[in-house]
Amino acid sequence: MKHIKINTLPARSGSKEIGQGVLDLGIEKDTEINGIGMGVLSDGTPYLNQRGLAALCGVQNAHIGTISSHWNETPTKPRIQTIKGIMGKVANVPVAAHFEVTHKGTVHYCYPAEVCLAVLEYYAFDAGTNCQPEARDNFRILAGTKLREMIYTQVGYDPTGAKRFDKWHERIALNYQSAPKGFFHVFNEAHTIIYEMIEAGAPIDEKTVVDISIGQHWSKHWDASGFDQKFGDRDKFPHRYPDSHPQSKSNPQESWCYPLAALGAYREWLQDVYIGGGKFRKYVEGKAKKGDFPPSVAQLAISAVEAPQIGSS
Description:
The protein is of the alpha+beta class. The chain folds into two domains: about 130 residues, no CATH class; about 140 residues, no CATH class. The chain contains 14 helices and eight strands. The strands form two sheets. A five-stranded antiparallel sheet has the order 1-2-3-5-4. A hairpin with a 4-residue loop joins strand 2 and strand 3. The protein is elongated, with a radius of gyration of 25 Å. The N terminus is likely disordered.
């Protein structure tokens, strides 16, 4: 493995217990550096893929696969016992050596960083005649938290979660004063829902733009209810997406804005029809089915947004 220069290191995240309890993990980010496949799972766990771990250890891919297949055999084989012993000194020993995660139609074998370090240390010092010089060299570079930090840095992941609001804030900065005086627009009125989704772990980005869903349903309701006659004509305003969104290529985009006199009717519709009537739930569950975020995140978002309001029975 070539030495990978790390210019900046993110803050260390809290340790996680690795196990089979999470069944809907996805891959948040992934990349390949010098033949080492790596990434971060949707719960923030940094990992190497099977080939990447094999390359670090200087062994054939099949050897890493054998470690996984022998992980829970009884009696425990000496190699597995040694690796688990290494892990047990610094972390909980997982019930499986890797996660199998389907990503973009392909099954990925994801070995969490703690498992990788234990396997790497084994091939560096404890494998007897099978010790590998590559493993020793790489262990010296990546021991402790360095492997986690390298993965986070190489895939561009912030384990503190501080950047999860960034794309939303970029849109706010471009659009918070864009509607003309006397009108409101759906994006500004969707902030509570967007915030709850982010807190639940949903990525609010170019793929998940819930205000489009809200705006489309509200526009249909506006027409069906004849609100032009009741509140006055709606208007168009220039809505812009930040450069981080591919939608920005067609900036500015015309979007509806509505008379402030209709704001109360809109908010009642949002609570009673869009949220209470199941449209938000359908939107979020649809995003989960597409793989944009795990079903567990979808359920957390639904629970947060559909929570009973103050004063409701």
